[in-house]
Amino acid sequence: MKRTKITNKIDYVEPDSMTNFTSCAGIIVQSKKKVMIDVNMGAKETYGLMEEEKPEIAIITHYHLDHSLWARHLNS
Asked: Residue 34: left if φ>0, alpha if ψ -120 to 50, beta else—which one?
């Protein structure tokens, strides 16, 4: 995974590979509540990233597989 700091509160994250449309780049926002937007790093990396970051809010912008497959890693 590649992580690029956009501001002191916004990180752009990219998976190592976006082949087969099973992953996509996303954004992590550090505010009063941690927000992850479309953060799907792939089957192996997403779970670990969720455990590490512990987001309070997760946003999936639209229902394409590359944007929505990571929802299974979220707790209700």
From this structure: beta
Q: What are the sequence ranges of the domains in the chain?
A: 2-73
Reading the block at residue 31, the tokens are 């505010």
Render pLDDT for 6-56 as a digit per residue (tens, 0 to 9).
999 999 999 887 776 677 889 999 999 999 998 888 777 888 888 899 999
Strand ranges (E), 1-76 = 2-5, 10-14, 26-30, 34-37, 57-59
- Residue 53's closest CA among 42, 63, 39, 64? 39
Half-sphere exposure for 8 (CA within 13 Å, toward CB): 0
